[in-house]
Amino acid sequence: TRLTTTLAPWTDSTLPLLARGYAWLPDRMRATHGGPVRTRLLGRPAIALRGPAAIGFFYDERHISRTAALPGPVLDTLFGQGAVHTLDGDAHRARKAMFLALLKDEAGAAALADHVVLQWSEALTGRDGGRRVVLFDETALILARSVCAWTGVPLSDEAARQMAGDCTAMVDGFATLGVRHWRARAARARQEDALAALVRLAREGEELAGDSGTAFEVVAWHRDADGRLLDPHTAAVELLNIIRPTVAIAWFAVFAAHALHRWPSHRDLLRKDADGHYARAFAHEVRRFYPFAPFVGGLAATDLTWQGETIAKDTLVLLDLYGHHHDPELWDAPYRFDPQRFVGREPGADELVPQGGGDPAHGHRCPGEDITVALLATLAAELAALDFDVPEQDLSIPLSRIPTRPRSGFVLTTARQDP
Ligand code: HEM
């Protein structure tokens, strides 16, 4: 039986959400046995939904609009003002087509993975052993260098470090009001200014170091639905919408390290995995098991009815992603980490939704999912192949914090090579 909880209109859940993090919505959902949860967020009536049918409902463009759905503080940190995330209809389709052409390309994803393998080996293998490395920071830097080279954004060594730090700050600070939030705003402002200046230079005919046909060129010369070039600032926002989330794969990389440390049997399976099938299944299970995007949201475009529930126009509609992946109705033993779930098969579109649901070409589902799986599988295989020790540290993953990760960032010491 499904129940709906209705709260008095003055009960706003913004503070409980900020305080309880990933646990907030699943706890509320438990009380309704997975049924819709009515609440208020940021002073607005809201309803949260979960499950495969809810995904179909949410990703029907006639139901949910994104323009004006995302709060300013989230745009000023995570996505950027004017980002593809905020567009609807034809404007969204034209902008999204640019991302899909750049990111849904097998050869492109493989080339990016090659960059990562090269950067990983320069940073972590073939050096003197006994080095202490914070895996989160090291992987963010490897990913920043790789994606900027691949995108055609030239960076000095110092600028690459700044980019890695700024991209992780943008993700780390979007769901808090404290010091992390202000760091995220400063990081975004700095990188938007730098990339907008590069776009202006390229349009004035300046040759950049990258090859032609790069993502940088495509974004710099992309024409929107109105036939116009993006203004340099919006072009910078969208370049960051490729660079930042690629760097954010560092969150999944430390989760992969956490899983290998807790359940070491997967390490041998990855080491023996000649065709990369197990690494892919492992990457899918990391994306299912560990918390990253808690939910997605939009506004009811019109008065709607969902399984007999009335949802008034402009209600904030949330789709519970984290809870979906731990719902015992949908998963056998959801709290068991088990890549076997995905061995020999790819998950269904609305089965595994850590990066949104539906069809990326017709809705807002992440266009970077193939790249995420390819890079995460690559990093998991590299980690399994590396000989390292894990010193005493705090590996707990606080669910009260969005986004979360092992508190220590996963410290490892590379093994000393035999002379
Ligand atoms: C959208 C998650 C990696 C580019 C999204 C959405 C989620 C998400 C939840 C929103 C879906 C929705 O609103 O319905 C993630 C996670 C990643 C990741 C957890 C792992 C680090 C990437 C990568 C790229 C990327 C690697 C690009 C290289 C985008 C873009 C959108 C998006 C451009 C906006 C799509 C739209 O509004 O139509 N992602 N993503 N993401 N993601 Fe990702």
From TrEMBL:
CDD domains registered for this protein in UniProt: CYP152 (cd11067)
Q: Which keywords has UniProt assigned to this entry?
A: Heme, Iron, Metal-binding, Monooxygenase, Oxidoreductase, Peroxidase
Q: Which SUPFAM superfamilies match?
A: Cytochrome P450
Q: What Enzyme Commission number(s) appear in the record? A: 1.11.2.4
Its required cofactor(s), as named, are: heme
Could you state a single Gene Ontology molecular function term?
Answer: peroxidase activity
> Which family does the record assign?
Belongs to the cytochrome P450 family.
PANTHER family per UniProt: CYTOCHROME P450 26, LANOSTEROL 14-ALPHA DEMETHYLASE
Q: What is this protein called?
A: Fatty-acid peroxygenase
